[in-house]
């Protein structure tokens, strides 16, 4: 919230005084800069990814991206935790949390790695 400060300046040799209103708006503090971490560091498509965030407003609606331009579907959001499923199309990349309404974006410092989906073994009948 801006603060108002009334400033009065006098100029030497001038009989008149000039008054002005100065509005001071504080920029974001270091504590307000959004940040995220996540676990696990890798998983298959459909696995759960837990993101811990700080710096986003309470009740903010956020989108989570995991490489390849994909958006992960949220399973739950309980500040400071966002739980998502790794979407089809996700690639090895940083995790990105975006709050469009407040123009806030946080990008993880490390990558989430998408593991290959294991192929189940084929069962064959053995002739006796």
Indicate the topology.
Blueprint: E1 3-10, E2 17-24, E3 35-39, E4 42-43, E5 48-54, E6 63-66, E7 71-72, E8 74-78, E9 81-85, E10 93-99, E11 104-114
Parallel strand pairs: 4-11
Antiparallel strand pairs: 1-2, 3-5, 5-9, 6-7, 6-10, 8-9, 10-11
Please explain how this structure is put together.
A hairpin with a 6-residue loop joins strand 1 and strand 2. This protein has no helices and eleven strands. The chain is elongated. It has 128 residues and is mainly β.
State the main characteristics.
four-stranded antiparallel sheet; disordered N terminus; about 130 residues
Envelope shape: elongated
The fraction of residues assigned to DSSP E strands is over 45%
Give the biggest sheet. 5 strands, mixed
**N-to-C SSE series?**
EEEEEEEEEEE
Mean pLDDT: 78
| Helical residues, percent | under 10%
Number of strands: 11
* Alpha-carbon distance between the two ends: 82 Å
Which regions have little confidence, pLDDT < 50, spanning 5+ residues?
1-11, 16-31
* Rg value: 26 Å
Structural class: mainly beta
Number of helices: 0
